[in-house]
């Protein structure tokens, strides 16, 4: 049987989602917990990977099991074996053709930035920028990314393959000195959100013009964006499926 889980985690003390030898990872901790229930090796499949120090509000993963537990017991059982910086919000049985990654139709990321005085209690959760930014300039610049584009200039240098993605929305708003960047798209390549946000921050700081970001975008990878926002402050907010 296939189980779909929604998980929330604080990425501060993890070396990313994907299993790595000798490193603490989200996938590693979850698989250890589920293996204690399944009593056999279990691989989980997530909607996507998050990098070191990146958080998730509603990440999704699935796994297959021979264990015939009542559906409402899976959440409690997995959480029992998890550390306190990972928490299963929901667990339910799904059809065998469901796949956490390939069945997803949209993803939403959020990035939080503090323009006020440095706050040591927020340092792992909100990027402590500490200076004012021009919100209107940033909002205007963000619009150039809306629609379907080749985002090769805004992905990791080691990323190959299809870099064409559709960005449905890129909203920016501020409340009490905290700026929230909200991006929804049909998918994101590695570091793509951080490069997009990093470029927009440079526009808001009046270091570059939006036209320079447009040149990077239209170059399809020839002119790379060298601005990458820090991982602290980035959240995988939501993964959307057809049934949602």
UniProtKB/TrEMBL annotation:
Catalytic activity: uridine(38/39/40) in tRNA = pseudouridine(38/39/40) in tRNA
UniProt entry tagged with the keyword Ribonucleoprotein: no
Single Gene Ontology MF annotation: tRNA pseudouridine(38-40) synthase activity
Its EC number(s): 5.4.99.12
Residues at the active site: 51 (nucleophile)
Ligand binding (substrate): 109
Gene3D superfamilies xrefs: Pseudouridine synthase I, catalytic domain, C-terminal subdomain, Pseudouridine synthase I, catalytic domain, N-terminal subdomain
Domain of life: Bacteria
Pfam families in alphabetical order: PseudoU_synth_1
Keywords annotated in UniProt: Isomerase, tRNA processing
SUPFAM superfamilies: Pseudouridine synthase
Record-linked InterPro entries: PsdUridine_synth_cat_dom_sf, PsdUridine_synth_TruA, PsdUridine_synth_TruA_a/b_dom, PsdUridine_synth_TruA_C, TruA/RsuA/RluB/E/F_N
Domain Pseudouridine synthase I TruA alpha/beta: 6-103, 141-242
Family from the record: Belongs to the tRNA pseudouridine synthase TruA family.
PANTHER family documented for this protein: PSEUDOURIDYLATE SYNTHASE (PTHR11142), TRNA PSEUDOURIDINE SYNTHASE-LIKE 1 (PTHR11142:SF0)
Protein name: tRNA pseudouridine synthase A
